[in-house]
Amino acid sequence: MSGFYVGIMSGTSLDGIDIALVSVEGQQATLIGATCLPFPPSLYNDLLTLCNSGPDEIHRAGLAGMAWARLAASGIDMLLAKHSIDASQVKAIGSHGQTIRHHPEQGFSCQIGAPALLAELSGISVISDFRSRDLAAGGQGAPLVPAFHQWLLSSPEAVRVLVNIGGFSNLTVLRPNQSVTGFDSGPGNVLLDHWINRHHGEAFDRDGNWARSGKVNDELLAYMLSDSYFQRQPPKSTGREYFNASWLDAALQQASGTFDPADIQATLLELTARSIAQDVFANVTDTAEIYVCGGGARNRWLMERLAQLLAPLSVRSTHAVGVDPDWMEAIAFAWLAWRFDNRETSNLPVVTGARGTRILGALYPA
């Protein structure tokens, strides 16, 4: 079943809702158009607060989920109008929702986003809750995008490594005619965004300029890299439940001396770059092409550090393989909706650790 699908991705960076309008035909997923809607400050604060335990969580999560759905529905309406496509022409919306808890070790992951309300407001069938079925089968429920990477970007000739750097970094290793490797390597932008927001009130470090101005603290970096997560073998996934402000503050207490805030930013960027590089070299022993997507692909200093650490491997954005790095994950969730629509499996047990392949998602008809 081919046609138009909408993919919605709202990641751990909490920078807004990415919406992609995609045409899926055969072995091609073509981006027709896309938009990003920043979160209003009140919704951002609500979602951030829900990532930690607090009073009256069920009530607050319900209200935040409905606000998320209303924002997503407005973005879908604008995107379809811009491209002169009626809602009736869209087969389904693949909605990731907003993750507020991810505890695969306990068998659950919670995404809010009021899919029934989104179906009601958009007039389009919504497919959501993609992680639960994999979790029920003993998997991590994440990462899910490597299956899309395999479908779209596998090469019969070259080893390709896809590095998605959002709030967290995840890697997909595609080998010709072999199984896929995919997992979360650790923090991406989440600690960088937190630190610059704490000291300068900025949402992110544009081009990594503040990090570039500082000096890496080797003692602090070594302590952070000694965390057991970085030594854990795949399958593995992580989130704000683990790498957060409290984790960073605890690390700072362990390191001696006082620090210039710019030096901490430099060290956090190096943590992201080093953790990615060490996982690439641990999982790739031959020549590979490295392609980066997500918000991290826009961070010039991070991209330069990755190129230096991964030399002689080439490091480029996914523009080089025909995919806009800003919309990779939103396109992937349109593809996940297409897979559900065709009743085809879309998890990779070798990636998530599930007992087998499963059809992922739950349907809320228009």
Description:
With 366 residues, this protein is α/β, with parallel strands linked by helices. The chain has 2 domains: 3-143 and 328-364, ATPase, nucleotide binding domain (Nucleotidyltransferase, domain 5), CATH 3.30.420; 145-321, ATPase, nucleotide binding domain (Nucleotidyltransferase, domain 5, 2-Layer Sandwich). It contains 13 helices and 12 strands. It has helices at 41-50, 57-82, 115-122, 132-136, 145-153, 190-200, 209-213, 218-225, 245-254, 261-283, 300-310, 328-341, 349-352; strands at 3-10, 17-25, 28-37, 90-103, 108-112, 126-128, 159-165, 168-174, 181-187, 288-293, 314-317, 362-364. The strands form 2 sheets. Strands 1, 2, 3, 4, 5, 6 and 12 form a 7-stranded mixed sheet that branches. Strands 9-8-7-10-11 form a 5-stranded mixed sheet, sandwiched between helices. Helix 1 packs across helix 2, helix 2 runs parallel beside helix 3 (115-122) and helix 6 (190-200) runs antiparallel to helix 10 (261-283). The radius of gyration is 20 Å and the shape is globular.
Layout: helices, strands, pairs:
Elements lengths: L2 E8 L6 E9 L2 E10 L3 H10 L6 H26 L7 E14 L4 E5 L2 H8 L3 E3 L3 H5 L8 H9 L5 E7 L2 E7 L6 E7 L2 H11 L8 H5 L4 H8 L19 H10 L6 H23 L4 E6 L6 H11 L3 E4 L10 H14 L7 H4 L9 E3 L2
Parallel strand pairs: 1-4, 4-6, 7-10, 10-11
Antiparallel strand pairs: 1-2, 2-3, 4-5, 6-12, 7-8, 8-9
Helix pairs in contact: 1-2, 2-3, 6-10, 8-10, 10-11
